[in-house]
UniProtKB/TrEMBL annotation:
Organism from which the protein derives: Eucalyptus grandis
Predominant place of localization: endoplasmic reticulum
Stretches assigned to the Fe2OG dioxygenase domain: 215-338
Gene3D superfamilies, alphabetized: q2cbj1_9rhob like domain
Ranges of Basic residues composition bias in the record: 46-56
Protein name: procollagen-proline 4-dioxygenase
Length: 343
């Protein structure tokens, strides 16, 4: 049974009976189909390409903040910073009811008046409330109230009593120690890091001054009886001999180990400021009224700098110990060097 020839749209009819007839088929060039991997892809039905629609961004674009918003944000951040500083007590807002004289530099009336309202040493020999007060910028001087506990003060005194000797001074020319009428107290030294209590005190000094423990000399213990004093002097050296170990003395911390009934003030005769405005002016001795004075109080510590921030010597750091008029005065001094002080 044979099949009828099927008409071909491309020309000659196809014959199923003769395979060789396929080779005789002629196709127009436009009818040749190309493979997608060898040429251009076939066009979609209808012969027209569809235009791709533009894609919308997934996230909308943000507009840059306006200058008003930036200014408002800056004001809010500044206000928040001020509130935080006020809460931490870094600074306070001055009252407008004070007189013009209270705003003068180094006026101590508003600072020292608060001392009367503060509590002293705590119970059972513990440290009372601690706080630091600026008393002068020339020289730079600060009082750390209740720096030592009552037990620590008594411990240092008992430790030093068996070793007290006549105090000496340093000769400016030779750099050696010698007896002098300008210093009539008794004294001795306690080695740096001698025991745990002393190490704790020295660590506290380093935390307060930001000067490493290794830059400090040993603790000098001093005892002043009635009539004994220390004439005004500088703690920094004026010779090369005493600066070979540790360099220059840059700061001094003087710790008061006892109260003094009358006299015994630490006085800075060349300091700058209106010192007659302090609340205890009438309680000072004649010597104490010769400049900026700090009354001895058990547990308090006086820090003052013998060098300015630029490294030069501060002549306003001239200081002395007023004569004791009534009672006894015990104190402990630590000098702090520019470099490590080897012991």
């Amino acid at each position: 049974m044979g099949y009828a020839a099927t008409p071909s749209p491309y020309g000659a009819p196809l014959s199923s009976s003769s395979p060789s007839s396929l080779s005789s088929i002629s196709l127009p060039p436009s009818a040749i189909l190309r493979s997608p991997d060898r040429g251009a892809p076939l066009p979609p039905r209808g012969g027209r390409r569809r235009m791709a629609k533009p894609r919308q961004p997934r996230f909308p674009q943000r507009r840059p903040p306006s200058s008003r918003r930036l200014l408002l944000a800056a004001i809010l951040m500044f206000g928040l910073a001020v509130l935080i500083l006020l809460a931490l007590g870094v600074f306070s807002i001055p009252s407008g009811g004070g007189s013009s004289s209270s705003s003068e530099a180094n006026d101590l009336s508003s600072i020292l008046r608060r001392n009367v309202k503060r509590s002293g040493l705590g119970r059972d020999g513990e440290r009372g409330e601690q706080w630091v007060e600026l008393i002068s910028w020339e020289p730079r001087a600060f009082v750390y109230h209740n720096f030592l506990s009552e037990d620590e003060c008594k411990y240092l005194i008992e430790l030093a009593k068996p070793h007290m000797k006549k105090s000496t001074v340093v000769d400016r020319v030779t750099g050696e120690t010698k007896d002098s009428r300008v210093r009539t107290s008794l004294g001795t030294f306690l080695a740096r890091g001698r025991d745990k209590i002393i190490r704790d005190i020295e660590k506290r000094i380093a935390d307060f001054t930001f000067i490493p423990i290794e830059h400090g000399e040993g603790l000098q213990m001093l005892h002043y009886e009635v009539g004994q004093k220390y004439e005004p002097h500088y703690d920094y050296f004026q010779d090369e001999y005493n600066t070979k170990n540790g360099g220059q003395r840059m700061a001094t911390i003087l710790m008061y180990l006892s109260d003094v009934e009358e006299g015994g003030e630490t006085v800075f005769p060349t300091a700058k400021g209106n010192f007659s405005a302090v609340p205890w002016w009438n309680e000072l001795s004649d010597c104490g009224k010769e400049g900026l004075s700090v009354k001895p109080k058990m547990g308090d510590a006086l820090l003052f700098w013998s060098m300015k921030p630029d490294g030069s010597l501060d002549k306003s750091s001239l200081h002395g110990g007023c004569p004791v008029i009534k009672g006894n005065k015990w104190s402990s001094t630590k000098w702090l060097r520019v470099h490590e002080y080897k012991v």
